[in-house]
């Protein structure tokens, strides 16, 4: 089977629905046809300030949400990044073949460093894409399903793989990003021109998977729209309504025009009420399952440990090959 790699940062107590629609829904469908590796990328999360106890908790919670959303740890390899040491080791090697300017062109770094300011921006945020390249390349990955915000990072991963292969001989498989175009980007409900994110400054426009259903419904009802009053997809002049339509369509599997027809001549209130119901129906069960799993952290930790052992095997093989190729002396 071809390989698949993807991951999410445990950067909040809950995932947000952009993560669900842009990534988890695809992962769930692809895990049957691919030998899939799904990681909770806790090393990446260290690029933001963290309370140690909270980080541990967020890591478990993220893993539980993967499983609750339908990732099967008996079929796919679902593990915690820091459990597999090869990630950090390969990242170091790859950083030595990455250009400073090349890394500086990454828009996620530019966005986040601008938001935090120079003093609060750490070097880890700058080398984030190099660690991500290591994540992907360790598993000889064929495809990387991500939201379109990560496309540039996967492109860099390809460049680094090709560069290494041409300097030292065939070592890495060159991965392809897979981006579901129509749901590639879910926007913040209060600020529908910026991406919904776990680490958004305000969570008023973020729909959390683990939110109480009542809270989610309320957030949908308060979503920013426009004064036109018609439920119509138009990204340019109606970003708020268009975003809600995309969410509605993604969660129901319906086409946008059919939803527009259903709500033709009705106000935004009706439309939002309909969407709130859809959101609650989809996430209610996911939330319950996740909370159930979190009731037994010891069992969850056992599952993660078994999966990390599986990941270790594949990752160590690649890392050993890299060390040999690049000229590190083997320990006798
Ligand atoms: P952070 O703010 O901490 O970066 P995030 O919400 O951007 O959190 P990530 O852990 O960076 O989440 O990304 C996890 C996955 O979710 C990636 O595949 C990413 O492309 C996807 N993703 C994140 N936000 C969205 C979004 N708004 N729409 C669609 N996909 C998204
Ligand atoms: Mg992100």
UniProtKB/TrEMBL annotation:
<dbReference type="InterPro" id="IPR050203">
    <property type="entry name" value="Trp-tRNA_synthetase"/>
</dbReference>
<feature type="binding site">
    <location>
        <begin position="9"/>
        <end position="11"/>
    </location>
    <ligand>
        <name>ATP</name>
    </ligand>
</feature>
<keyword id="KW-0436">Ligase</keyword>
<keyword id="KW-0963">Cytoplasm</keyword>
<feature type="binding site">
    <location>
        <position position="186"/>
    </location>
    <ligand>
        <name>ATP</name>
    </ligand>
</feature>
<feature type="short sequence motif" description="'KMSKS' region">
    <location>
        <begin position="195"/>
        <end position="199"/>
    </location>
</feature>
<feature type="binding site">
    <location>
        <begin position="18"/>
        <end position="19"/>
    </location>
    <ligand>
        <name>ATP</name>
    </ligand>
</feature>
<keyword id="KW-0648">Protein biosynthesis</keyword>
<comment type="similarity">
    <text>Belongs to the class-I aminoacyl-tRNA synthetase family.</text>
</comment>
<feature type="binding site">
    <location>
        <begin position="147"/>
        <end position="149"/>
    </location>
    <ligand>
        <name>ATP</name>
    </ligand>
</feature>
<feature type="binding site">
    <location>
        <begin position="195"/>
        <end position="199"/>
    </location>
    <ligand>
        <name>ATP</name>
    </ligand>
</feature>
<protein>
    <recommendedName>
        <fullName>Tryptophan--tRNA ligase</fullName>
        <ecNumber>6.1.1.2</ecNumber>
    </recommendedName>
</protein>
<dbReference type="Pfam" id="PF00579">
    <property type="entry name" value="tRNA-synt_1b"/>
</dbReference>
<keyword id="KW-0547">Nucleotide-binding</keyword>
<feature type="binding site">
    <location>
        <position position="135"/>
    </location>
    <ligand>
        <name>L-tryptophan</name>
    </ligand>
</feature>
<keyword id="KW-0067">ATP-binding</keyword>
<dbReference type="InterPro" id="IPR002305">
    <property type="entry name" value="aa-tRNA-synth_Ic"/>
</dbReference>
<dbReference type="GO" id="GO:0005524">
    <property type="term" value="F:ATP binding"/>
</dbReference>
<dbReference type="GO" id="GO:0006436">
    <property type="term" value="P:tryptophanyl-tRNA aminoacylation"/>
</dbReference>
<comment type="subunit">
    <text>Homodimer.</text>
</comment>
<dbReference type="GO" id="GO:0004830">
    <property type="term" value="F:tryptophan-tRNA ligase activity"/>
</dbReference>
<dbReference type="InterPro" id="IPR024109">
    <property type="entry name" value="Trp-tRNA-ligase_bac-type"/>
</dbReference>
<dbReference type="InterPro" id="IPR002306">
    <property type="entry name" value="Trp-tRNA-ligase"/>
</dbReference>
<keyword id="KW-0030">Aminoacyl-tRNA synthetase</keyword>
<comment type="function">
    <text>Catalyzes the attachment of tryptophan to tRNA(Trp).</text>
</comment>
<dbReference type="GO" id="GO:0005829">
    <property type="term" value="C:cytosol"/>
</dbReference>
<dbReference type="InterPro" id="IPR014729">
    <property type="entry name" value="Rossmann-like_a/b/a_fold"/>
</dbReference>
